[in-house]
Amino acid sequence: MSRLYSANVSLLATATVFLLLAGTPASAQELSADSEAADQWTVPRTPWGHPDLQGIWDSKTQTPLERPSEYAGKEYLTQEEVDALERRTVEAEGRDERAETGTVADVEGAYNQAFSTFFATKVVGTGRTSLIVDPADGQIPYTPLAKQLVADRAEKNRASREDADGPEDRPSDRCLGFTLPCTSPLCAFSRLVQTPDSLTLYYESGHWGGAYRTIPLDGRPHLPSHIRQWHGDARGHWEDETLVVDTTNFSDMENSRTSFGGASKEMHLVERFTRVESNVIMYRATIEDPETFTQPWTIEMTWQKADSSENLIFESACHEGNYALTSILAGARVLEGAR
Amino acid sequence: MRQRYSEAMKVVLVGGVLLGAAACQPAMEDEGMMNSDVPRLEGTTHPDIHGVWQAFSEVEYNLEGQAAQAALVLHEGVPNGSPVPNAPVLALGALGGAPPSLGAVVGGTIPYRPEALAQRDDNRAHAITRDPAVKCLMPGVPRATYMGYPIQITQGTSKILMAYGFSNAGRTVHLDEVDAPGIDSWMGHSVGRWDGDTLVVEVSELIEQTWLDRSGNFHSAGMTVTERYTPITPYHIEYEATITDPDTFTEPWTIALPLYKRMEEHAQVLEYRCVEMVEELIYGHLRKEQLVSHWEGDYGRRGGTLVIDVRREPTSEPDL
Fold this sequence. Notes:
heterodimer, A: alpha+beta, 23% helix, B: alpha+beta, 2 domains
């Protein structure tokens, strides 16, 4: 456990060095051009000539998906603001405080920073105030109906937070998996391995259950539309130095309350992976779903390379160790008997 | 099967040596014996084993082999009859049976210590409730290889990922040097190297909760596994796994079976995220309102109507 913690510290240090090198964070190209080291750097290649994206990558960030109102109209933080924000997050008081004993918040919050990977300290490498880069206001472009549905669902989740009639009432305790695209610290570590005509991403997600996501690069068609998967059906191809991954055939995750941003199963996800520095993949994901959104919208994240020999990525045995859900349900039945 | 394979292997190896000698290629001498039938990973001299593979074998039911059985959980028969399927699987009929198998243990029998053999037999008598795979737990190594689901092998330059079609299980085979996690896991810590055309994988740090098949064959936390993947043609790999576990077995023992390439166009490993699918089994007794409680199936005149009533109760044994 302490090894994981020191890894986080060293990653943080790496990120800081990176940001210093980068000067005032800006867009991907500027960021790359500003770095002195980037002048000599060319993307490494696999023996078969593709850009080499292999390794362990860490996309964990404290930068929110949507731009907070305090940054309205402000796309980028200054370097001073990034430093201050990261310092404040690391030093934030009250992180280890207990909520009122016996409440769900108390149990859920019973992990401090050293224990948990839940907490992210780094600002996204671009220095942006939101992961959403399009639309320019940094907000998810919901249709009016979808906005209402998402708000209703959030309210329902809040109201039923302590329900435990069955496993379905505890969506985040079931180890069912994470959703794509992953913007959460809980699925931020991944390992990428390439072959000439396919590649596989392993996402570590100890809390939700991880995934091996194999992406064919051989131009094959998508699965028939009646075959749906939690992580959809991915097809990739190279556009110059960029890996482009097109994913469709998502399953209907409405019941599990886990769809990305409230998207429907018709979500069309296009991800772009570009190694812009030795230690950085620029990751962009465009989400399209006319049922839910008025326009396609795009997020941008920086994936930091982690030390391969330290090998700080682990098996995601969430379900295997899930004694919590048993205890939560058993506890609820005991409480009913007591009432 | 094993003998046939050994003969084929000899022929291939001899062929490879002769070809190598005839062509006088220094690279082949450096690499040892290379099978010219086996494709090479582009830009390297190593065999290319990436793609979707599968063991077409029944050994998942019993590594030692067995005659066909009526069901995984049996009810004693009448004095002049055979055992019959027990209540939990009665409705499945022949589709709930266990197929016959030649087994895959070299020598035929697993060399259990006496007390471990007694444990195995007890496991077998309670297989349906004790087999970890029933609850969608990761199957471990080597069982994941021959469970019968497809395997996606992604062969990179310094890592090989193996993603299994059951329970979202997978692992990284490290061809380069890494720190071992130092803690047991369901799929273990795998370190690989090429020995000629054979990928040799040493697997350690395996958690003790996994089983080796559906028949109660098991191991301790001290088990290590040495796997050998030898591609023979572009379409099949000879797989061997040697299991060493002095607490459970009197000596190391080996299983051998082929893996076959999935040849249909656009083969891919689809998700089998079984966690949600076993929640009723695992948590059904803890629901506020019982969900699955009664079933009736009409089998027609040959079988009549089968009625199954389910009652859920808290366990009498602590889970931890």
